[in-house]
Amino acid sequence: MAAPTQSPTRSPLPVLGGGQGVMAYPLAEPVHRDLCTDCGISRTSDPHRCGTACQFIRPRYAELEAQVHGRSRDPNRPDELHFGPFLRLARARLRSPLPGAQWTGITTRIGERLLEEGLVDAVLATAAHPDDRWRPRPVLVTEAGGMKSCRGMKMGYSPILALLDEVERQGIRRLAVVGIPCQVHALRALQETLELDELRVVGTPCSDNTTTDNFHHFLAKLSDRPDEITYLEFRADYHVEVRFRDGEVREIPFLQLPLSELPQDFFPLTCRSCVDYVNVLSDLTVGYMGGDGDQWLIIRNERGREMVELLGEELALEEPTSRGRRKGAVQSFMKAVQRSADGLPLRKMPSWARPIVGRLMPLLGPAGTEFARTRVEMKAVESIIQLRRHHPRRIKRMIPSHVWDLASPYGLQPEPEERS
Ligand SMILES: Cc1cc2nc3c(=O)[nH]c(=O)nc-3n(C[C@H](O)[C@H](O)[C@H](O)COP(=O)(O)OP(=O)(O)OC[C@H]3O[C@@H](n4cnc5c(N)ncnc54)[C@H](O)[C@@H]3O)c2cc1C
Ligand code: SF4
Ligand code: SF4
After folding, report:
1. Are 290 and 324 in contact (CB under 8 A)?
2. What does the domain layout of the chain look like in residue ranges?
3. Is the pTM of this model over 0.90?
4. How many angstroms does the Cα of residue 39 sit away from the middle of ligand 2?
5. What is the pLDDT of residue 3?
6. What residues contact residue 332 under an 8 Å CB cut-off, 6+ apart?
7. How far apart are CA 328 and CA 405, in angstroms?
8. Are 148 and 17 spatial neighbours (Cβ–Cβ below 8 Å)?
9. Which atom of ligand 3 is nearest to the CA of 207?
10. Which terminal residue of the chain has fewer beta carbons within 10 Å of its beta carbon, N or C?
């Protein structure tokens, strides 16, 4: 296997907590496109590739799923309609959680193990800007110790694929990528044109994203000391967990979040119309939403299985749980999306009712795999409603047939002109 042939000659940029073996580079400005999450392709030496790579311009989910996993979704395995092709779903956690990780750090540890075993030359992932813990900064990590600087979620768009030029320039031929679904779609669409001998993809789910500036605005509504927030996560038990620098931890029920005070475009149309929550083109998806309090793995193919096996006894793996029923939750969500798509404000729940409903939701709401199915169906319904409202002509191209299948129990069927 060829080793990297060139060393970087451009001056690398600093990253938060960065050390040896982690490199960030100056990036070109992005080219403006109508629906774009700045995955980085428009900043490369060939920005025209957006036309063939982008999930918003030329989505190719069914074709790429078959290419990556060697098969399509199996109709005899009903969960593949929701989660895409997979070998195994599992609940998982590192027995010794990594400090600073978003959950227990499975993603970071896989990157480290790949580098420790010499299975890849570099990992393309996301660290943080040295002045702002929340601002993503794409990096190439070439030593296991460098993965530490990528721990934890950054909120905002991370143009990781802009570094594909650097991968080529440095002669890196065995690459691992950690990315969210829209990044992974573009990567897979271009995979055959990249000069790589080996590509391994660890994907995380992603339901919503926004700009880092918008996210700071949200933090300022959550707390009167937003600059001291070091961690935030939307947990599967319907709470947002917020941690502060001094060790304080707050758990805020979703229903008490100031969502109705945020501007309508806080979550951009890209994310409201994105059809891939679970990163179906990754080899291994590492999330939390089906994990019932733990992390959640979708092991999709042999490359994914191999990466999980690299963790050996460090990883506790269990069968997933599943409780509750999703239909009512999806129906209520659909009504709220319909209302906001029509330009009406989200209804505020009366403040006396919030604590009661907030306490009941974790008990009555769907959990485990059923929670993950719920969120995937919500996303399907949302993307159809939002595109019908804002970009009706794009529906035919952007909504794949499996998304119509997920939405049909809620009365959403394609009109003749909407069928692909
Ligand atoms: C914007 C966003 C939304 C998400 N939404 C969901 C969700 O709805 N449901 C769910 O189950 N999981 C979601 N995740 C994934 C989840 O937050 C965890 O990252 C995941 O569970 C892995 O946890 P970990 O402890 O293994 O990660 P860690 O070991 O802490 O590693 C985190 C990894 O995330 C990557 N990363 C961090 N920020 C970004 C970013 N802005 N863009 C791209 N990559 C980034 C880094 O490269 C790093 O390798 C989301 C992640 C992001 C970035
Ligand atoms: S491929 Fe990436 S950079 Fe290009 S339009 Fe799509 S999201 Fe934006
Ligand atoms: S919701 Fe979809 S489009 Fe938005 S950032 Fe996440 S993967 Fe990309």
Report:
1. no
2. 22-209+270-320, 324-420
3. yes
4. 5
5. 43
6. none
7. 18
8. yes
9. 1
10. N
